Amino acid sequence: MDEPPLTSFSVTHVSYDASDPVAYLCAWLALVPQILCVVYATLIWSSREVEIFLMLAGQMGCEVLNFLLKRMIKGERPPRIKAKGYGMPSSHAQFVAFFSVYLTLFLLFRHSPHPSDTHTPTTFFERFLLAAWSFVFAATVCASRVYLQYHTVNQVLVGSLVGVLTAIAWFGMTTVARRNGWTQRALESRALTMLRVRDLVVEEDLAESGWERWKNVSKRRHLALTNKASAKTKRR
Fold this sequence. Notes:
mainly alpha; 66% helix; 0% strand
């Protein structure tokens, strides 16, 4: 009995010229969407911030849109790469374009952290630099898809445009949801309350979250250790 043919797991399979160091770097950049999904999952699990849930929901919606567009347009990839699936629009370009644009809109128009006694939040200029860096990073990923010949320039440009428009549209929808109190009502639901979902990152840096409570716990522990050391000294 003949064994069934094997196939590669195309999500992480990347073809590149092993003698070209730039192609090697581009092959790593092909894994950026998967890496960002891990980042999403990590931040959701550790912070339980509703804003990250919303961003991920929009990101996944953008991926569904890409899936549908590819099967509607049926644009072929460049002939050199024997990759599976259609090439128009580029899913990598659409993914990173959505990520960078939504992140930029959040940092510049929604995120307004307040200073505290122990923390000075990032300034608007620092947030602007972070947003600019995300655009440079996204452009690098897009260029890598053309360099590896997985996509044509037009496929990358269309993917980027769809990602940008989707991010703007989704940010607008989440803004309406916040202004009308729909997000707050969802946060007060039993399901999100059980999951401990919160909405602090709009007015608070992630680095500050829980810091004040930790300082109080640290002081109590230090005091307990000091009292314990004093008690031992007295017994001697």
